[in-house]
Amino acid sequence: MTEATLGVKPPKTGSTLHTLRTKEQITGYLFVLPALIVILVFGLFPIGYSLYMSLFNWRVTKGAYVGGRNYLLIFGTWTNLLITLAGIALIVAAFWIWSNAFSSLSNRKTIAKVVAAAVLIVGGVVFVTGWGYMFESGNQNFLKSLIVTTYYAVGTVPAEVIIGMILAFLLYQDIVGKDIFRMMYFLPYVTPSVTSAVVFQIIFSLRETSIANMVIGWFGISPQRWRFEQRPLLNLLGVDISGFLAGPSLALVSIMLYGIWSFVGYNTVIFLAGLGNIPKETYEAAEIDGATKAQMFRHITMPLLSPTTFYLTLIGFIGTFKAFNHIYVLRTPSAGDSVITSSLLIFDNFYKANQYGVATAQAIVLFVVILGLTLAQNKLMGERVFYG
Amino acid sequence: MKRKLFSLIAIVMVAAMVLSACGTPATDTPPVEEGGVDWSTVTPAQNITFWHQHTGEDREAAMEKIVNDFNSTNEYGITLTAEYAGGYGDIYTKMLALLNTPDVPDIVVGYQNQIATYQLADAFFDMNTVINDSVYGMPQADQDDFIDAFFQQDVYPLYDNQRLGLAPNRSMEVMYYNMDWLTELGYDGPPTTPEEFREMTCAASANPFSGAMAEGSMGYQLSIDTSRFASWTYAFGGDIYDGTTNQYTLNSPEAVAAFEFLQDLFADGCARLVSENYGDQSDFGNGTLLFTVGSSSGLPFYTSAVEGGANFEWSVAALPSTGTPKQDVYGASVSIPKSTPERQLAAWIFLKYYTSPEVQKLWAEASGYFPVRKSVADMMGDYMAANPTYKASWDLLEYGWFEPAVPGYDFVRDEIEVVMAAVVDDPTLDVQTEFDTLNEFGNRILAEQLEQLN
Amino acid sequence: MDNLAVTQPKPAPATRGKRSPFYWIGRVLTYAILIIGALIFIFPFFWMISNSLMTLGETITRQLLPKVPQWSNYADAWNQAKFSKYFLNSVLITLGTLAGLLFTSILAGYAFGRIDFKGKNILFGLFLATMMIPESVTLIPNYLLIRGSILPIPGGTWLNKYWSLTVPFIANAFSIFLLRQFFAQIPKELWDAARIDGADHLRFLIQVVLPISKAPVMTVLLFGFTGSWNAFQWPLLVTTNDTWRPIMVGLWSFVNEAGPQTHLLMAGAVISLIPILIIYFLTQKQFTQGIATTGLKG
Q1: Per-residue pLDDT tens for A135-174?
Q2: Radius of gyration of chain A (CA)
Q3: Residues B164, B222: one domain?
Q4: Which helix (H) or strand (E) holds C75?
């Protein structure tokens, strides 16, 4: 019994231990093999092929080999890219310094934090400078689309996760008709976008009588142009900034609301699965110890839900960077490029301008960006996930 | 760990790259060479496929009948299978991946600019090699029976005047108007000049229709679509493309005049943007919108809208113009991808059948498109009498004009739409400057696309 | 090996005396939020059903409710879009995909969550990486793959065949990731106890893990079903005839170039939603039972 509790097998002779380990490894590989084959073929091959296409002057027909030229079109010059990457590297270094500070003595800790902050600021400045250069000489449309995509991701994922968690929590309680409620919240996710898009076009239409305008009318706000409105939301609210900090346009916000509406149901269902996994007696024990509901939520529910939260946040971000359908059906020419996310731009470059080489180069760059953000997220959040 | 991750991904990608380099790329070499085929020695293939985008009960039934009749009456034993392969865009995507491979269909629908893009890969059959053939050709009398503008639309100067398609149907931009409302406003007919149009739209915006089924009144709603850009430019006497210099003319004085006109209408509240897809159709049907501009193929939908809505007298007319009307005519043609001489010949035989007068009559009456042959119009007397709005549109065909058939047009269309939308909504924008930039963009895209020809 | 999935009986109601007013406010607020939220969420669905019962004219003029419900729209949509064939196709495609998906994801999720093998993290990262590329550029390489242009595949080409609609989807990183998260949470004590009884990973997976993992497995099933059933882009590309065309592509034929036949489109969409809702009910039943792993702790 002791061995099992400790989770450690008694030491055996070297060869048996080795055999057991090997057997375990083989089992692991075998289990993964079926998925691996399919994903390798249909998931990784397209990435490789896209990389291949991006190295050529590929319009409808395969042209000459051009190496990195399609990439250069995005960045302007390689120096610009280096500067920007240097900025990112400095920011990463700042975090590393910060998190490794507590290994030193207490006053060294403060110094380390100050140094980290300084490095962060320098890194930020370098990054912004590099970005500025790229904007001047590189592909403005693509760079702008990265910003739009970031707005979309930041605007939808946290909202979807938080609302999903709250809804799941509420629906996990003893509510009359909770099965019906659960289904109603799930419906948007499964409604084909052919139909929900039409409805949202009507909701966010620029007529004075549109539903969105009626709703804000109750709060005394004048009718807006919604999906046709190119101006940033902050500007409309009266805050006068421009550039990156001005934030998403009202058109993009309309699309975000559509996105959130669609995906909250998905998150809710998965959170419910996560809540169902928490043993009831954990709560009971805590109740006996006198914990309040709020305390139980904070110290039991949230940590035990953290693997689920991590999962939903991670795939949420990946998903929004790839998001296409919702944006495609709600975009208008009046909104200009304020709603053109990277996946939309790549689609247009591919199928309308038939610039296969350029489009795939942009796709690879987007891929690297998503990869980088995922790794960053993994680092930041992954360590706080509690696997019970 | 991170480095390992990166390096492994890199290795896998390179491996996949090498692997894919070993495989056949998207465009194989064409399986057959052109020119100098003696058609009398070629036996038409027995089984061919036709990809189309037609949906709806009426069209599907008509297509089925046409195909069945062809299969049972043609003297070569050809069996054609017609397949719904998606919308125009979907068919375009599929074709792009299949160009110059044996999996192409034998006949496919496509807009001229799509065919122009396909032909960058030299993937389509030039019908000039068979149209005057002694055995299988189309008699000159038949060729002359085609309406000239439609017949010429499928000849591509960019590609040495190859004939890459044949027109089975066409439609046209028309102006829909609410006659009852016009009468209420004190007018006895649709506007024929922009000034009249302006007068009437502003009158309508101020005076709702008595029979309206919903709140509000508006003179005109502009839908942001390049075909509207073209229509209005034509209406002011200009063109958006110069076929002799092969350059866009999006900033011509006429285009600028047209959009300054519209900009003023918007600023005065007499016109606005369409607010959701087909929103103008529904507002027209409800009696809250006096004029719309759209395709004549929408006639059945407008009929349903008005019947289901305010039920008033209405009709179609040419857009109000500064001189002789010039109407934007468009439509997909049917084209033959390159494959083997046998398949191409069989496809051609069907095309002749599809564009023959009786079949044209059947097809036009079922689909709501226009037929492409003059003789067919005479045969359609009854149908025209029963559908006066159709006849009204048909009578305008003599004023037909068409949009450019160049690769990359779809991309330029998107930019045209962005600029259109910006200009009409913002009176402070200078139309000339905006259109100058737009025109530069269009010509740049065109140059990039045409590079591939060399 | 005992089945350790036991549903705990509900605890006896706490005898706390009178409930505080906060409790009632909380309840009212909860219901209010839920009801308002639900109305927002299902409004488009209501619009869909309403439009499915209208005449074309009513949909075009944007009425809110039909004057006379046109139940015939459902029959029309069914016939016009050849729904019976497409429905069957969708069922077969989805079942096949699901079977494969459950097989690959459960095995791989377990391996990633509970087995320590070399290169595990790299491999997992690779799986996730495949999800990071936009679909518009993967369409054409995958299309070339299933046509047999890149590597020879059994059967020559998979265009218009069952395999092109199923095989690419029988593994995806999201399902594996989800299951990994849940499988990793299973207490180590269970595995140790199983090992003592002489079980290997496979037996542990089948006899212990799966029975207590109903919630995540049902989730994978539900979303796998939805993804396959609602798939549109890819099936549109790889089917050019009726043989294996699924329902969503069939719906598309109601969208004309000159104007949509909204009433039929909505009727078709409602019909296509029903199987998903059925699967939803079936899977959600499994969720409502709490799961406990008692007997080991304390």
Answers
A1: 888 888 999 999 999 999 999 999 999 999 988 888 888 7
A2: 25
A3: no
A4: helix C72-80
Name residues of chain B where pLDDT drops below 50.
1-34
Look up residue C221 and give its amino acid: L
pLDDT one-digit tens code per residue, B270-302 = 999 998 888 898 899 999 999 999 999 888 889
The total of structural domains in chain B comes to 2
Number of independent structural domains in chain A: 2
CA distance A105 to chain C (A): 34
Residue carrying structure tokens 């069907």: B350
Tokens 């085609």: give the residue.
B146
Residue A327 clears pLDDT 80, i.e. is over it = yes
Residue B33 lies in a domain: no
CB atoms within 10 A of CB C58: 25
* Tokens 């075998």, located at residue: A30
Chain B nearest-CA residue for C123: B5
Cα(B390)–Cα(B299) distance, rounded to whole angstroms?
8
Report yes or no: A20 at the C interface, CB cutoff 8 Å. Answer: no
- The tens digit of pLDDT for each residue in C168-184 reads 999 988 899 999 988 98
Contacts 24+ apart (CB under 8 A), B356-360: B356/B142, B357/B145, B359/B66, B359/B69, B360/B168
Place of tokens 């209208």: C54
Name all domains of chain C by residue range, CATH numbers in brackets: 82-252 (1.10.3720.10)
Clarify whether residues B212 and B311 are in a common domain: yes
Pick the residue from chain B with its C-alpha nearest to C236. B86
Q: Which of C44, C107, C291 minimises the CB distance to A196? A: C44
- Picking from B12, B19, B277, the nearest residue to A201 by CB comes out as B277
Dihedral of alpha carbons B213, B214, B220, B224, sign: negative
What pLDDT does A286 receive? 85
Q: pTM, whole model, 2 decimals?
A: 0.85
Structural domain includes residue B152: yes
**Whether residues A205 and A283 fall in one domain:** yes
Can you tell me the distance from the alpha carbon of C144 to that of B299, in angstroms, rounded to the nearest whole number? 40
Which residue among B88, B282, B295 sits closest to C60, beta carbon to beta carbon?
B282
DSSP class of A237:
T
Q: Is B215 in CB contact (< 8 Å) with chain C?
A: no
Q: Do A175 and A321 fall into the same domain?
A: yes
Put simply, whether B366 touches C (Cβ < 8 Å) is: no
Q: CA angle, C212 as apex, C211 and C213 as ends, to 5°?
A: 95
Diameter of chain A measured on Cα atoms: 81
Q: What spatial distance separates the first Cα and last Cα of chain A, rounded to whole Å?
A: 21
Residue B230 lies in a domain: yes
Q: In Å, how far is C276's CA from the nearest CA of chain A?
A: 7
Angle at alpha carbon of residue A380, lines to A377 and A384, rounded to 5°: 115
Complex ipTM over 0.90: no
> What gap in Å lies between CA A353 and CA A343, rounded to an integer?
14
**pLDDT tier, A267 (very low <50, low <70, confident <90, very high otherwise):** very high
In DSSP terms, B124 is beta-bridged to: B337
Hey, is the C-beta of B21 within 8 angstroms of any chain C C-beta?
A: no
Say yes or no to pLDDT of A364 above 80: yes
CB proximity list for B74: less than 8 A, separation 6 or greater:
B349, B350, B353
